[in-house]
Amino acid sequence: MKRNPQEEIEEMEEEDNYVNAPAWTVDEVAAPPDQRSLFFSRSSPLIAVCWLILLVIMGLRIYFGIVLESKITNLTTPNQQLETQRNNLTKQIQDLETNWNKLNVSRAQWSIDAYCPKDKERQCTACQKGWGLRDSNCYAYFDAAPPNQKTWEEARQNCRGRSSDLVVVQSQTDQDILNAVSSGSSGTAGYWFGLRAEGGRWKWIDGSDLTESYWTPQPPPPATDGQCVMSVQTDNWISVSCGEKKRWICKMKALSV
């Protein structure tokens, strides 16, 4: 059937409109027009929230990283100071040990020289040179002139500096030694030994209480703090002020040879 020219023109315009129409995406084709607009309207806030959460997380990581680094820096300085102090203390301990070893060597050498004098050949004795041996003890009395005499405490320090101490009377031999070196009946002629008043009682320097004594006359005088005892030949023992200057006598154990 033959079409008229007007119908052919309309058919060609429809074909041209179809060819030039814009292409649709898969989602646009799949989704109805009302659902496509609804998807975009709902997804935009969700994306914004996700970005916000991501920014918060990154900010927190940066903040806590800065805080942690600051704390590490604050701890590093005290640790370095403690390390320096530890090194200083270690060096001081090492110096003390070195000095202590030197002192021990010096004391050992002094003991050898004191008990075993170096003449042509070393010959060791039970007591140092200048000390007298009685039983198993060594005694030395220091008959110093008045300018060089000492208080009771000074006399004791002198004995201790010689690895000995003031005489503690533990036997008749000890008392005989005191009597032998003492002379006269006055305090100016006596010797300090290791007895003094302490806490209202007469006590020996080894901490023991006075039991047997050689006071003249008996009984012993009151134990008044600040009083010490000295030996004189006639009166045996007398009590005088510890601060007076007197002579003194030291005692130590003899060396077994």
Fold and architecture overview:
The protein is an alpha+beta fold. The chain folds into 2 domains: 27-102; 132-253, Mannose-Binding Protein A, Chain A. Helices cover 47% and strands 16% of the residues. The chain has 5 helices and 8 strands, in the order H-H-H-E-E-H-E-H-E-E-E-E-E. It has helices at residues 5-19, 26-30, 33-115, 152-160, 172-181; strands at residues 132-134, 137-142, 165-166, 191-198, 201-204, 227-232, 236-241, 247-253. Strands 1, 2, 3, 4, 5, 6, 7 and 8 form an 8-stranded mixed sheet that branches. A hairpin with a 2-residue loop joins strand 4 (191-198) and strand 5. The relative contact order is 0.10. The model has no long low-confidence stretch (mean pLDDT 77).
CATH superfamily of the largest domain: Mannose-Binding Protein A, subunit A
Outline, from the CA principal axes? elongated
Mean pLDDT: 77
* CATH architecture group name of the largest domain: Roll
- DSSP strand count: 8
Q: Level of helix content?
A: 40-55%
Q: By helix and strand content, what is the structural category?
A: alpha+beta
The arrangement of helices and strands along the chain is HHHEEHEHEEEEE
User: Compute the gyration radius: what is it?
Assistant: 54 Å
Count of domains:
2
Name the beta content range.
Answer: 15-25%
Q: Give the biggest beta sheet.
A: 8 strands, mixed
CATH fold field value of the largest domain: Mannose-Binding Protein A, Chain A
Number of helices: 5
Through-space gap between termini: 158 Å
Task: Report low-confidence residues grouped into runs of 5 or more.
Answer: none
CATH class of the largest domain: Alpha Beta
